[in-house]
Amino acid sequence: MTLFDAISKTYNKTRVADDRIVSELIRLADLEKGDHIIADIGAGTGNYSIALANAGFQIRAVEPSATMLSKLERKTNIERIVGCAEKIPFKTGSVDAVISVMALPHFSDIKQAFTEMARVSKKGPIILFAFDPQIGKQTWIHNYFPFCWDKFSNLPTAEDMAIMLRLCTNLSSQIVPFKLPADLKDHFAAAAWKTPGLYLNEDYRLNISSFRLAGVEAVNNGVKRLAADLETGRWENSYGEVLRMDEIDAGYYFLLAK
User: Fold this and answer.
1) What does the CA dihedral 21, 27, 32, 34 come to, rounded to 10 degrees?
2) Which of the residues 16, 123, 173, 184 could staple to 162 if both were Cys, CB 3.0 to 4.6 A apart?
3) What is the pLDDT of residues 73-122, one digit of tens each?
4) What is the Cα–Cα distance from 184 to 141, expressed in whole angstroms?
5) Spatial distance between the Cα atoms of 157 and 241, rounded to a whole number of angstroms
6) How many CB atoms lie within 10 A of CB 200?
């Protein structure tokens, strides 16, 4: 069983499309209302596919894990397609826009994926939601669970990713930073930056790929340290300033090519 076949069982419990991310995807796509086709590459269980379909777009959800894709509810304006980013099974210029949310770290060849996205899109836009591991390492979460970012240490920075996207697509590229709100609905690695107790919940951790990829000992050590620091007040003494913040820069961003 692959990572995402396993994670699919509980994924939708905590990985819900956040309205603010959806709104930004729509804003950056800049498509007029109508029968536009958007390809969602690395769609997973389709949380963002569904949100965009509900907004009136025709969606082609592409995901290599058939098990993940089977969790995507059937809708008349969503086509479910088993496939990978490096070889998107579409004709050239057959979609009006391409999105990919939190899937970049799992592509086997990012350059080839970018080239394929440009091929299947008429003229862009291509919109990616990703994270810069170098900025993520500056959060308190890294002190307890360094593997959340160390596992992806070879992932290019946002600036390097923008250059790569531009070179692969011959389109202009733009970085749009996204600060994480405290009430984020999509609980990826840094989402609980203001509610550290959530990381003690195994069911919560199971839906974050970096925790799934990490060794059991590394996860348990981090959980034990965090639990002890929360109980003694050491965590609040060291990091309590985040409790007074409404949002945080943890290195997440949108990357737009058009």
Assistant:
1) 0
2) 173
3) 888 899 999 999 999 999 999 999 999 999 999 999 999 999 999 999 98
4) 16
5) 26
6) 15
